[in-house]
Structure formats: structure tokens, C-alpha cells
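Loading example: each entry is read as three labelled lines plus one structure line.
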Amino acid sequence: MGRPPCCDKVGVKKGPWTPEEDIILVSYIQEHGPGNWRSVPVSTGLMRCSKSCRLRWTNYLRPGIKRGNFTPHEEGVIVHLQSLLGNRWAAIASYLPRRTDNDIKNYWNTHLKKKLRKQQAMGAIFAPPPPGSSATAASSNFDHHDMISKVDDHGYGAHAACSNTELIARHHRPSPFAADATTDVCSSSSYASSVDNISKLLDGFMKSSTLPPLQNYSDCDDVKPVVNPLMSFDRMSGTGSSADASFTASVHQQPASMGGGGCYDDETKQQQQQQAPLCSIEQWLFDEAAELELSDECYSVPMLF
DNA sequence: AATTCAGACAACCGCTCCTTC
DNA sequence: TGAAGGAGCGGTTGTCTGAAT
């Protein structure tokens, strides 16, 4: 069909975002709310593609995002959901509202896929499954905890005595958004990964907002049943795209632009009606939450909002 | 100390889906 | 009902950083 590009290729800036650009974008969204991305570059004068603006906001600037340091529970959720849903990162991300699909996708590609490969390799060596059995991650009986505890880049199960924190730490550079990220950030020359810059940006942003403390994000909501979008999509279905939608409203409503929840909304509802497996996902998540007593996984990430 | 290599992640590209007219 | 436009998603690439040599 040869659709025209979403924006003029000429004069469109690419590459890492600068603090100035972030400020402009955040200011605009504060005023108008997320959505109507096509108008963002026009209205703000940003020399960025509308998609780039949306991506920047969705993945890095919007409040409530948790970055880096995936917990064992989160890993388990990702692995399990990936085995059930495939590479539907937006759908998977909807189960981890503070994570972005891009973040999950990257984490999967750089960490979990390798772990699974190793696990499968180990399984092939030490415990070859009988023909026809489902010993892979695709099995609905996949024991993610087992995988998490047995497989890492080095130990092949040797770290069974290691804490999960240690395990995860081995796989991650300190996140700029992690609680102890300040020193790391100082050593980074990349603005895009600088929590300092972004938090400074958003600090003023927050102060100017009438937003009360954001319970949804300040609590360990990703480990409570309410995290399940199947249970809470109604409140997440706001589009936040209307021009008069305040930022406050957009945050509380979890607009569609935030992690693709809106898009998944309908789909999820359909699945809810049509597909039994998701029920088992819910069940599993709840079981998982109970099993881990998730309180110790309450994130110590300094919330920007 | 310099160079090379691999890992991690931010960002872009193209496709698909959804909405509007 | 079909076409057009916008938004979202997933795959992929480019760049940066730290480790290894």
C-alpha cells in the first residue's frame, strides 16, 4: 500500500533524547495528557517522530515505571506468561504494570532466553525427557522457580544456596532506577539512563501536580491481586487522550498508551471470555503471590511520584 | 595502556490492528 | 463497506559500557 511515514523523515531527529527534549515532552503531557501523539511534535516543536515521543514517554518518562533488578517473582511471571502467551510483551507487561513491554522484551532477550536455553541443555544432558513429554518451558507445568533457582550464567545450579537477590544481581548492571543507583548513575555518561536527570525533571513535574500519593505505585501493587489486569482493566481503560485530561487523571487511569494496556484491554476481555488458559494464569499468579509472601519483594525503588 | 569483544539497553522500523469518516 | 490515518506492538539494530586480553 505504501503508507506514508508517520512523520516527515526530513528533519526528524533520531538517537538518544536530551534533557531538554524530555522536559518539553513531559511538560506537554503534563498539560495535555498522553495521547494524540501525532500532534506532540507539532505542538511542542520537538523534532521527533510521534512514535518516538510515545515510546519515550511510555518506556521512560511516565511515572510509576520500575526499571532494572527484576525480582525472582517477576522473572517467574515473565517466563510463565511467555510460555503461555508467546512473545506478546504488551500482554505480559500488563501483568507487571510497573514494567514496560520494552523492558520485559529486552530482559527476556538478554537474560531469560539464555537461562532457558541452558536449562534445556542441562535437561537434555542430565534428564532427557521421554519422547512426547513436555519438559520445555512451553509446558504449562513448567517450574519457573526451579528454573530460576537452578540456572544462571555461571552456576548451573551451583548457587542453590544463593539468595535470589544475589542471583539477580549477577545478571544486572545496577539500574539507574534502583534504590542504590545514584552512584552508578554518576558514572554514566548516558543521559537516557540517568535517574538524576529524569528524577530532577519529574520532581518539578510532581510538585506542580495536585496528585496525591499514588497508591497504585507506591504500594507493592505488582504483587497484589489487583495487579492482575483482568481484574482491574476497567480502571485502566481510560484513554487519557483528551486534551483536557489532566496528567493526574491520566496517571490514575493508566491510559492505553501506558504499556499498551488499552490495546490489550479488549483483547483481554475477549480472552477472558474465550480462553480458559488465562484463568490458569491468574490462578498461578495468585498462587505465586501467596507462595512468595511477596511482602519481602516490596520494591525499595525510590518512586518518583 | 590500548585494543578487542561481548553484554545490555535505548531507540528505530515496519507491520498490524483499531478507529473514524 | 471500504479507505485512510493513527496508535500500538514486536523484531531488530545501534550505541555504550565494562571485562578480557
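The mean pLDDT of chain A is 56.
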